[in-house]
Amino acid sequence: MDPVRNPYAPGAGQRPPELAGRGRELDAFDVVLERVARGRPERSLVLTGLRGVGKTVLLNTLRSAAIGRLWGTGKIEARPDQSLRRPVSAALHMAIRELAPHHRDPDRVDEVLGVLKAFALRVNDPNGKIRDRWSPGIDVPPARGRADSGDIEIDLVELFTDAASVATDVGTGIALFIDEMQDLGPADVSALCAACHELSQLGAPLIVVGAGLPHLPAVLSAAKSYSERLFRYQRIDRLDRVSADLALSAPAAREDVEYEAKALDLLYEKSGGYPYFVQAYGKATWDHAPQSPVTDADVRVAAPEAEAELAVGFFGSRFERATPAEREYMRAMAVLSGEPDNDMDAAVPTSEIATALGRKPASLSPARDALIKKGLIYSGERGTVAFTVPHFGRYLRTQPV
Question: Which of 143, 288, 345, 397 has the most other CB atoms within 10 Å of its CB?
Fold first, then answer.
């Protein structure tokens, strides 16, 4: 079939041609937007899941829904080596600029932008000095005495409160979207929770929508004990069979192409229902299939190409980031987590990994902590670890040592 017409899109954060299986999350967010617009209390939202399940795609789709309601929005991607100040400043600047044309008092908007600029320029300096070597692109002077204490928790609470007041004035809301939220530093996580707590008590129309790996709730809980009640958590999992079939067949139907039932059976078996893998196998199958309908034989011919691409771009690139000691740790995890042909990688007790490697658990802590920091594994329950990437254990079990 014509590769130019291939509808599938396996890419990081790239929206698939058919966003299947996420209707419940989209409907729930519409309720959140409507409740906030009517001045009713609502919690901020946190999406969690493994890599490749479509968290970033869903985050972007939720942002589009907020924009469609004329909300002010901004989005950041957290990084472990970066403070929250500058990216949040840029994101809220964008959100306020979206609301400014609808505000009756430009001077009030400028006041809030002055607070935003003061927040952006303040460093965590014990002397409370303002850094003037970087400009956030806000054409107003920085405010004094508001969101500029140097304490990120105090400053973020004041900034969010003032930004929310602009949204209140225009009868709408502000949504801040944070991807890779688990990578925020401890102080920033604590500040974010405190700010969301203050907003919820005030009923202010500003919400945070975060996305991160499965251990993100534990990260938030470690920062503030009340975070369990502060956010509404939604686990984003792999697609069920009906949704996975729809993700493949709907885009194909728009190109007058059909799948045989056995082809869809095999594609689900290969992909496990993970959205990224569905797109990868779908793309390879389309390129190899000579004509419609697509058969299971076409899938078998195409599967090695999809697997080779995943081995390099999805699995291999992550494995290469690990040190030899970290790779040894992951290989032991892979052996303990499942059989060579098992799609699912179970959580593994860290004590069993130490036994398998003939080491004391404490001696393996640096490797474990580094892998967690790199986002390759996570600790969902105390004393256990699991891969953040679906099928990663299966991939490692098939690789030569």
Answer: 345
Q: Tell me the torsion sign for CA atoms 159, 165, 170, 175.
A: positive
Look up residue 209 and give its DSSP letter.
E
- The residues, ordered by sequence, that sit 6+ positions from 315 with a Cβ below 8 Å of its Cβ are 389, 391, 392, 395
pLDDT of amino acid 40: 86
Query: Residue written as tokens 């589009």?
Result: 64
Smallest CA-to-CA distance from 396 within 323, 328, 300 is with: 328
Cβ atoms of 292 and 258 within 8 Å: the answer is yes
Beta partners for residue 285, in sequence order: none
Q: What tokens appear for 368 in the block?
A: 């474990």
Q: Please identify which residue in the block is written with the tokens 């869903």.
A: 58
Q: What is d(CA 31, CA 23) in angstroms, rounded to the nearest whole number?
A: 13
In tens, the pLDDT along 131-185 reads 444 566 778 888 899 999 999 999 999 999 999 999 999 999 999 999 999 999 9
